[in-house]
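[recover] target loaded
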């Protein structure tokens, strides 16, 4: 396999999070807490349960900035731990770069239909670089992407109401629907993304490994 130069996606003029992203995180975390309260024992998500940390998924520009901020903080407070995150990210890129459905030099995912179909089968067995394989917990938990923050409770998408396959065993459809989580009712995320997305029509979506592999 030929060598591919890989660097993480970066927008030099937008290396800090929008101030209201903190508000977005609070809204989503509060919605999760409410859904968890209504779910009770049906929601079995616990520290060390890391099935949802296996498989590559797309993250947006806000997620990337949040992760980068978390890694920078970890570099200051626990350099060895931060170094392990970066090492796992670099190793992940080495495994993924050849089949990356986008630009392997920037880490930006292609938005063509062909690339999107390819992404469905891309890196499905790849662990997230932020996952500590010894503890089964996230080294950047406070700065995790929105996909991670909403995973578990019932969340509605274009495909219907989806839940973690490990949760809600024994619950009826009505009982599951009663636990539905509405993460961002006013769509604040889209408003913040419009502030940091370049006007070239590209959403700038990437994957976790690309934004964690380079130096902070």
């Amino acid at each position: 396999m030929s060598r591919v130069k890989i660097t993480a996606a970066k927008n030099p003029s937008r290396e800090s999070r929008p101030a209201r992203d903190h508000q977005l995180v609070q809204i989503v975390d509060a919605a999760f807490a409410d859904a968890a309260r209504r779910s009770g024992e049906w929601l079995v998500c616990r520290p060390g349960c890391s099935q949802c940390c296996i498989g590559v998924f797309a993250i947006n520009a806000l997620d990337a900035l949040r992760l980068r901020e978390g890694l920078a903080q970890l570099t200051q407070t626990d350099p060895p731990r931060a170094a392990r995150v970066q090492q796992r990210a670099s190793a992940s890129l080495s495994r993924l770069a050849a089949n990356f459905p986008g630009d392997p030099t920037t880490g930006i995912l292609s938005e063509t239909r062909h690339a999107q179909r390819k992404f469905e089968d891309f890196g499905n067995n790849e662990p997230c670089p932020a996952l500590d394989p010894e503890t089964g917990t996230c080294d950047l938990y406070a700065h995790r992407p929105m996909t991670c923050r909403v995973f578990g409770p019932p969340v509605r998408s274009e495909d219907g109401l989806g839940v973690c396959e490990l949760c809600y065993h024994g619950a009826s459809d009505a009982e599951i629907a009663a636990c539905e989580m509405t993460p961002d009712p006013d769509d604040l995320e889209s408003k913040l993304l419009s502030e940091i997305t370049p006007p070239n029509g590209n959403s700038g979506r990437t994957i976790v490994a690309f934004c964690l592999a380079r130096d902070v």
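[recover] notes: Strands lie at 58-59, 102-103, 108-109, 131-132, 137-138, 155-157, 160-162, 206-207.
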